[in-house]
Structures are given as structure tokens and as C-alpha cells.
Amino acid sequence: MEHLVNQQIISLNPKLAGPPKGENTIRLDKGELPYPPSAHVIKAIVDATATINRYPAVLGGFLRQSLANYTGAKPEQIIIGNGSDDLIELIIKVFVKPTEEVLLPIPTFFVYWHSTQVMGGNTVLVNRSEDWGLDIDSLLQKVTPRTKVLFIANPNNPTANLVSRDTILKVLNNVNCIVVVDECYYEICQETVADLVEQHPNLIILRSLSKSFGLAGMRVGYAIANETIIDYLYRAAQLFPVNKLAIVAAIAALEDMEYVRSNIEKICQERAKLTSNLEKLGLLVYPSATNFLFIRTQSLGIPSAKLVEALRARNILVQDFGLKPGLDAYYFRTAVGTPSENQQLLLGLKDAIAKF
Ligand SMILES: Cc1ncc(COP(=O)(O)O)c(C=O)c1O
């Protein structure tokens, strides 16, 4: 059988379901919003179930107009996908031929790497600077005629930092490839370069409804770019990439911005409290423009994998980044949870640290 499988797929790791997550598991490993959707969103989903015998509208139906109203872009400048993960793969499918290059400043979001592998492209990795900013000179040195796409997560996952608009402009003014600026956390940091798509036809902005809008389980993401790019992306996309319940949930969530803003306010308050309490435990916490914190454990002399394992034993899940590309053995990431989840995380860490 293996001789029939594309070579680049054979070299990928199998996906593991992981242990079942019980009711009491504290899930801080996936960067999710800890609050449920609003009653308005739930009602929209329930109402739409009556017509799920019908396919969803092509091109996302009214959601495209709702996103145009929300972003200020034209509907023709927007494509909707099954989460922004889906759009990352679609961008690579449209622009990268096997063996062509995708440039990644690392550490960064692993899906850029994974989707490039799946499509048979080559990833070219460039280390970020010590403060996790972009090392523009090193980055530009790696650009070749084979470079088709550069991904900049802004803010970056897992490092949680933003790079400035000036830095992004410098990149745009020096490369000809597609530049994807992934603004998955836009509502939290309020920084965007979406207004630059008019002047820069090679710029694609990625957004998500998974984080600030709390719809991670629904899978809705979108991209903003000039009409030509959007047209090509839609040509290659599936006919119905976003399901009907996700479309109505997204429209309803966009109608309920007050709820979104109040959740973000709670997350930002908790983020400040959690940061200072983690620092009191002797950990280094990087400034965050997101709903998660990136943490260095080296000052305690404890590799992050050990702390993450000790937390898991207490049913608290955080994401280990020790020894991931561009990192040494001392990093992990935690979402900002509810006050009680954050409290349990702190207690778990205090206990684990005391035992080492
Ligand atoms: C930078 C970045 N981009 C994209 C995504 C994926 O978002 P979605 O749930 O819309 O696929 C994430 C999720 O963690 C992320 O951190």
C-alpha cells in the first residue's frame, strides 16, 4: 500500500486522539476562549438546524456581506474557510508548486509548516530575534526566486508578540512573493494591516472566529486580499467548505460585538493577573498581545516538558514547546482561562515546582 502514498505524506507523524478529556479537565493547551457562545449565537444555530437538509449557500451567503460590514473590505475581497487552517492550506495549494519554498520566521504556528509539507512544498526556516521580532536582514537574505509565500503571524503563536506596521511595510516593500499576515488575534490586540491590501496586491490578511468570538468548535476563518487573489482562492476551494450552522453562528456572533468585547476585557484583566502571579513563581512571562501566555522555565532549571507532565497528572493541559523548531528545552504556552482555571493552574505549578 505504502508505494501508492505520496512520499511527503509518509514522512508526516500520525495524528493521535490523545487521552479522553473528562469533565474536570482544565483545557489551556489550545488557546481557546473559556466562555461559551452568547444566547443569540446558540439560538441562531438551533434555528438553522431545521434546514440542514439543504446545502449551505455558495461563497458563504450572507456571511460574506456581514464580514464586509465588519472589516470595511468589499465582499469580493473576502474568502471564508473552514477555520483559518483551511485557508492556510488553500493559499499553499494555489501558490506553491511541489519543491517551491514557503518562508517561515520561527518559532511560529505549526500549521504553516504542516500544510506546506502536505502540499509537497519546502519550508525555509529563519530564526526570529531574541525578543521574537522579525530579523528582517536574515529574512530577506533567504528570499529566492523559488520563494512563493511568507507567513507572518501577527501576533505570533506561540511567542504572543506583535511586530510593528513599519516592519511589515519593510517586508512588503522588499519581496515579490505572497505575504500572509495572520491576524487570528486581531480583536484582542486591535492591530491590523488590512488597509494595506489595496496598495499591496501580494498581501493576504488571515482572520479567525475561533478565538475572540469563541467559535473554535464551529471552524470559521476568513481572508482579506485583493479581488484577483480572492477569485483564485475561491476557484480552488471546495464548493461548500463552511457548514450551514457555522455560517449562521458567525453572522450572529458578528451581530453581538458587545458580548465579544466584554469577553476580551475579562481575558485582558485575567492575563495581567496571571502574568504577575506566574512571575511570582519565578517564571519568565513574555508580553502578550493574545489570549495566551508564552513562558520560559529556564530560570527554575526545570525543562518545560517536566512541568507540563506534572500539570497533566493534575488534569491541567498546557502546551509544551520545549525543543520545538527554534526553541530550547524551556518553553510552554498556556491559554488565559477563567479566574478559577487560572487559580488551579497556579496551584498546580507551585506544587510541581516545589517537588523539583
Ligand atoms: C496564528 C494562528 N493562526 C491560525 C490559527 C488557527 O485558527 P482557526 O481555528 O481559525 O483554524 C491559530 C490557532 O491557534 C493561530 O494561533
Provide structural commentary.
Helix content is 38%, strand content 16%. It has 356 residues and is α/β, with parallel strands linked by helices. The chain folds into 2 domains: 22-36 and 258-355, Aspartate Aminotransferase, domain 1, CATH 3.90.1150; 39-254, 3-Layer(aba) Sandwich (Aspartate Aminotransferase, domain 2). The strands form 3 sheets. A 7-stranded mixed sheet has the order 2-8-7-6-5-3-4, sandwiched between helices. Strands 9-10-13-12 form a 4-stranded antiparallel sheet. Strands 1-11 form a two-stranded parallel sheet. Strand 3, helix 5 and strand 4 form a beta-alpha-beta unit. The mean pLDDT is 97. It binds pyridoxal-5'-phosphate. Pyridoxal-5'-phosphate (PLP) binds next to helix 4.
Topology:
Layout: H1 7-10, E1 26-27, H2 39-48, H3 62-71, E2 78-81, H4 84-95, E3 101-106, H5 110-118, E4 122-127, H6 136-141, E5 147-153, H7 165-172, E6 178-182, H8 186-189, E7 203-208, E8 221-224, H9 227-236, H10 244-254, H11 257-280, E9 284-285, E10 292-296, H12 304-313, E11 316-317, E12 319-320, E13 331-335, H13 339-355
Parallel strand pairs: 1-11, 3-4, 3-5, 5-6, 6-7
Antiparallel strand pairs: 2-8, 7-8, 9-10, 10-13, 12-13
Bound molecules: pyridoxal-5'-phosphate.
